[in-house]
Q: What sequence folds into this?
């Protein structure tokens, strides 16, 4: 079945502009984690270090997530002694900014992004992935294979659960079949 979806690593200014808009729509408008900006864009504080995995449809960004392997992670700032909560690891990566356009939320888009992420993690030889999963989507993150650890972080308006996953445990297949 041809879906017209293109999965790739972002590499153009137009894609980055769309990433900043989706970032704002998701993390300032929908989830009040950041202040709203008059220009409707939110540039992530780690933007220059992020690798963005995106899903495009007819040139429009409909889904994204970012990976970053440079410490300190955003979770390092939220949890003292982050590593003490985790199983042994050597090459960690933090996954951030999972965002899907409201009309594109479902297994196909997320599954494709996870498949792209899986290939990247294998190539980079990451042995643990960390995320802060929004509480209202906790079951989704667990379904993917993430394991909660430590106390919740964030604000009363935007609460997150720190989670980790060993990349070989990433459960992509069930999303690709939806």
A:
């Amino acid at each position: 079945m041809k879906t017209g979806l293109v999965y790739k690593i972002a590499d153009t200014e137009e894609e980055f502009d769309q990433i900043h808009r989706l970032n704002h729509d998701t993390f300032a408008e929908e989830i009040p984690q950041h202040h709203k900006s008059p220009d409707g864009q939110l540039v992530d504080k780690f933007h220059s270090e992020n690798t963005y995995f995106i899903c495009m449809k007819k040139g429009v960004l409909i889904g994204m997530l970012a990976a970053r392997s440079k410490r300190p992670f955003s979770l390092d700032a939220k949890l003292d002694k982050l590593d003490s909560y985790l199983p042994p690891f050597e090459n960690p990566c933090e996954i951030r900014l999972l965002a899907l356009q409201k009309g594109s939320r479902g297994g196909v888009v997320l599954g494709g992004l996870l498949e792209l992420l899986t290939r990247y993690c294998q190539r980079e030889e990451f042995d643990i992935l960390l995320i802060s999963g929004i509480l209202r989507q906790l079951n989704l993150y667990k379904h993917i294979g993430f394991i909660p650890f430590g106390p919740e972080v964030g604000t009363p308006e935007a609460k997150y659960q720190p989670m980790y996953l060993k990349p070989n445990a990433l459960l992509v297949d069930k999303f690709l079949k939806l």
